[in-house]
Amino acid sequence: MYAIRSKKTNRWFHGINAQAGVGSSLRIQMDDMLPALFRTKEMARVELLLNHLSPQFYEILEVDLHIQEHAA
Q1: 31 inside domain
Q2: Neighbour tally for 50: CB within 10 Å
Q3: Is residue 68 included in any domain, yes or no?
Q4: pLDDT tens digits along 46-60
Q5: CA nearest 38: which of 8, 14, 67, 11?
Q6: Domain-located, residue 49
Q7: In 3-state terms, what secondary structure has residue 64?
Q8: Rounded distance, CA 59 to CA 39, Å?
Q9: Are strands 2-6 and 58-62 parallel, antiparallel or unpaired?
Q10: Segments of the chain with pLDDT less than 50
């Protein structure tokens, strides 16, 4: 899995707020803990391009997920 992170703030790309205008700073939602996940690096790159996010300011990182199940 892959995620997008801001090089400047180290916050994770979480999604897009479609309610906000294209030029609004509120349009891009960032999160400290929960990133939006993409199956491939190419899908993450497409998300950057579709939302006019510059690869100069954002990086695509591979995320290793570990799922732990707790016994009830």
Answers
A1: yes
A2: 9
A3: no
A4: 998 888 888 899 999
A5: 14
A6: yes
A7: coil
A8: 16
A9: antiparallel
A10: none
The single residue listed with the structure tokens 């994770």 is 12
Residue corresponding to tokens 């906000």: 20
Model pTM score: 0.78
**31 is in which domain, residue-wise?**
2-62
DSSP count for the chain of H helices, then E strands: 1, 4
List beta partners, residue 58: 6
Task: Assign 45 to helix, strand or coil.
Answer: helix
* Residue 71 confidence (pLDDT): 73
Strands (E), 1-72: 2-6, 12-16, 28-31, 58-62
Contacts of 9 (CB under 8 A, 6+ apart): 30
